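Sequence in, structure out.
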Amino acid sequence: MANIVLLNKIRYNSNIMLSLHLELNHLPTKIKHYCHEKFLDHLISFITNSLFSQIPIVNIDNTIGGTSTDGAVAMVNTSDHCMVVLGYSYSNLGLDKSEQCFGSSDYWILKLDSAQNIIWQKTYGGSGYDMPSCIASTSDGGYIIGGTSLSGIDGNKTEPSKGGYDYWILKLDDLGNIEWQKDIGGNYNDF
Protein backbone atom coordinates (compact mmCIF):
# COMPACT_ATOMS: atom_id res chain seq x y z
CA MET A 1 0.00 0.00 0.00
CA ALA A 2 1.36 3.42 -0.93
CA ASN A 3 1.25 6.00 1.80
CA ILE A 4 3.58 8.86 0.86
CA VAL A 5 3.84 10.41 -2.57
CA LEU A 6 5.96 13.43 -3.42
CA LEU A 7 5.51 14.68 -6.96
CA ASN A 8 8.01 17.26 -8.10
CA LYS A 9 8.26 19.11 -11.41
CA ILE A 10 11.74 20.63 -11.73
CA ARG A 11 13.12 22.85 -14.48
CA TYR A 12 16.74 21.85 -15.20
CA ASN A 13 18.40 24.01 -17.87
CA SER A 14 15.88 23.82 -20.72
CA ASN A 15 14.49 20.42 -19.70
CA ILE A 16 11.71 19.54 -17.30
CA MET A 17 12.28 16.69 -14.87
CA LEU A 18 9.55 14.76 -13.10
CA SER A 19 10.60 13.37 -9.76
CA LEU A 20 8.15 10.99 -8.12
CA HIS A 21 8.91 9.78 -4.60
CA LEU A 22 6.62 6.96 -3.59
CA GLU A 23 6.64 4.84 -0.47
CA LEU A 24 5.27 1.34 -1.01
CA ASN A 25 5.00 -0.89 2.05
CA HIS A 26 7.48 1.41 3.83
CA LEU A 27 10.09 0.98 1.06
CA PRO A 28 10.94 4.28 -0.66
CA THR A 29 10.98 4.35 -4.44
CA LYS A 30 12.13 7.25 -6.57
CA ILE A 31 11.28 7.70 -10.24
CA LYS A 32 12.88 10.44 -12.31
CA HIS A 33 12.06 11.15 -15.92
CA TYR A 34 13.04 13.90 -18.33
CA CYS A 35 10.37 14.79 -20.85
CA HIS A 36 8.61 17.54 -22.77
CA GLU A 37 6.69 19.93 -20.48
CA LYS A 38 3.29 19.35 -22.14
CA PHE A 39 3.64 15.57 -21.83
CA LEU A 40 4.77 16.04 -18.23
CA ASP A 41 1.66 18.08 -17.38
CA HIS A 42 -0.54 15.29 -18.81
CA LEU A 43 1.45 12.65 -16.93
CA ILE A 44 1.12 14.54 -13.63
CA SER A 45 -2.62 14.93 -14.21
CA PHE A 46 -2.97 11.20 -14.95
CA ILE A 47 -0.95 10.23 -11.88
CA THR A 48 -2.81 12.54 -9.50
CA ASN A 49 -6.29 11.80 -10.88
CA SER A 50 -6.09 8.08 -11.63
CA LEU A 51 -3.33 6.06 -10.09
CA PHE A 52 -3.16 7.72 -6.70
CA SER A 53 -6.63 9.15 -6.18
CA GLN A 54 -6.83 7.64 -2.67
CA ILE A 55 -3.34 8.72 -1.60
CA PRO A 56 -2.45 12.21 -0.38
CA ILE A 57 -0.02 13.85 -2.80
CA VAL A 58 2.34 16.69 -2.02
CA ASN A 59 3.02 18.67 -5.18
CA ILE A 60 6.18 20.71 -4.79
CA ASP A 61 6.92 23.36 -7.38
CA ASN A 62 9.63 25.09 -5.41
CA THR A 63 13.41 25.24 -5.54
CA ILE A 64 15.44 25.28 -2.33
CA GLY A 65 19.20 25.22 -2.37
CA GLY A 66 22.51 26.90 -1.89
CA THR A 67 25.27 28.10 -4.18
CA SER A 68 26.43 24.66 -5.36
CA THR A 69 24.88 21.22 -5.91
CA ASP A 70 22.18 20.17 -3.43
CA GLY A 71 19.53 17.46 -3.65
CA ALA A 72 16.77 15.71 -1.74
CA VAL A 73 16.94 11.98 -1.05
CA ALA A 74 14.01 11.28 1.30
CA MET A 75 11.22 12.93 3.28
CA VAL A 76 8.75 12.29 6.07
CA ASN A 77 5.49 13.99 6.93
CA THR A 78 5.12 15.37 10.45
CA SER A 79 2.15 15.41 12.80
CA ASP A 80 1.93 19.22 12.49
CA HIS A 81 1.24 18.95 8.71
CA CYS A 82 4.78 19.87 7.73
CA MET A 83 7.48 17.79 6.05
CA VAL A 84 11.08 17.09 6.91
CA VAL A 85 13.30 16.67 3.85
CA LEU A 86 16.68 14.94 4.04
CA GLY A 87 19.20 15.80 1.39
CA TYR A 88 22.83 16.36 0.62
CA SER A 89 24.64 19.64 0.10
CA TYR A 90 27.89 20.71 -1.49
CA SER A 91 26.94 24.37 -0.80
CA ASN A 92 28.40 26.80 1.67
CA LEU A 93 26.37 29.53 3.34
CA GLY A 94 24.23 31.40 0.82
CA LEU A 95 20.84 31.58 -0.89
CA ASP A 96 18.55 29.21 1.11
CA LYS A 97 21.42 27.52 2.99
CA SER A 98 22.00 29.03 6.43
CA GLU A 99 25.06 26.98 7.48
CA GLN A 100 28.51 26.34 6.04
CA CYS A 101 29.42 23.03 4.44
CA PHE A 102 31.86 21.07 6.61
CA GLY A 103 33.58 19.19 3.78
CA SER A 104 33.06 17.82 0.30
CA SER A 105 29.37 17.06 0.88
CA ASP A 106 27.18 16.96 3.96
CA TYR A 107 23.82 15.72 5.17
CA TRP A 108 21.30 18.60 4.95
CA ILE A 109 17.91 18.39 6.66
CA LEU A 110 15.09 20.93 6.40
CA LYS A 111 11.66 21.23 7.97
CA LEU A 112 9.18 22.86 5.60
CA ASP A 113 5.69 24.15 6.36
CA SER A 114 2.70 23.39 4.14
CA ALA A 115 3.59 26.37 1.91
CA GLN A 116 7.13 24.94 1.54
CA ASN A 117 8.77 27.70 3.60
CA ILE A 118 11.82 26.68 5.62
CA ILE A 119 11.05 26.42 9.35
CA TRP A 120 14.52 25.14 10.31
CA GLN A 121 17.52 23.51 8.69
CA LYS A 122 20.66 21.76 9.87
CA THR A 123 23.90 20.62 8.24
CA TYR A 124 25.82 17.56 9.49
CA GLY A 125 29.20 16.35 8.35
CA GLY A 126 32.95 16.30 8.60
CA SER A 127 35.75 17.32 6.25
CA GLY A 128 35.22 14.32 3.95
CA TYR A 129 32.37 13.06 1.82
CA ASP A 130 29.10 12.45 3.72
CA MET A 131 26.01 11.27 1.82
CA PRO A 132 22.60 10.64 3.45
CA SER A 133 20.18 8.00 2.21
CA CYS A 134 17.24 7.57 4.61
CA ILE A 135 15.11 9.22 7.29
CA ALA A 136 12.41 7.97 9.65
CA SER A 137 10.31 9.61 12.35
CA THR A 138 10.82 8.35 15.89
CA SER A 139 8.20 7.89 18.62
CA ASP A 140 9.55 10.86 20.61
CA GLY A 141 8.86 13.29 17.73
CA GLY A 142 12.44 13.31 16.49
CA TYR A 143 14.13 11.68 13.53
CA ILE A 144 16.75 9.08 12.75
CA ILE A 145 18.82 9.59 9.61
CA GLY A 146 21.44 7.42 7.99
CA GLY A 147 23.86 7.27 5.13
CA THR A 148 27.58 6.95 4.54
CA SER A 149 30.57 8.97 5.68
CA LEU A 150 34.22 9.21 4.73
CA SER A 151 34.89 11.86 7.42
CA GLY A 152 36.90 11.50 10.60
CA ILE A 153 36.26 13.43 13.81
CA ASP A 154 35.65 17.01 12.69
CA GLY A 155 32.78 19.30 11.79
CA ASN A 156 29.97 17.90 13.94
CA LYS A 157 31.00 14.27 13.45
CA THR A 158 32.21 12.91 16.80
CA GLU A 159 33.33 9.37 15.92
CA PRO A 160 36.31 8.38 13.77
CA SER A 161 36.04 6.54 10.48
CA LYS A 162 36.73 2.82 10.89
CA GLY A 163 38.33 2.74 7.42
CA GLY A 164 36.98 3.92 4.08
CA TYR A 165 33.27 4.69 3.88
CA ASP A 166 31.25 3.80 6.99
CA TYR A 167 27.57 3.91 7.84
CA TRP A 168 26.82 7.09 9.78
CA ILE A 169 23.58 7.16 11.79
CA LEU A 170 22.28 10.21 13.70
CA LYS A 171 19.36 10.51 16.12
CA LEU A 172 17.87 14.01 16.06
CA ASP A 173 15.35 15.75 18.28
CA ASP A 174 12.27 17.51 16.87
CA LEU A 175 14.36 20.61 16.01
CA GLY A 176 17.10 18.67 14.23
CA ASN A 177 19.64 18.83 17.05
CA ILE A 178 21.91 15.79 17.36
CA GLU A 179 21.03 13.58 20.35
CA TRP A 180 23.49 10.83 19.44
CA GLN A 181 25.43 9.51 16.46
CA LYS A 182 27.13 6.26 15.53
CA ASP A 183 29.77 5.42 12.95
CA ILE A 184 29.55 1.73 11.97
CA GLY A 185 31.98 -0.08 9.69
CA GLY A 186 35.03 -2.18 9.14
CA ASN A 187 38.50 -1.60 7.72
CA TYR A 188 37.23 -1.10 4.17
CA ASN A 189 34.32 0.62 2.46
CA ASP A 190 30.88 -0.20 3.87
CA PHE A 191 27.85 0.71 1.73
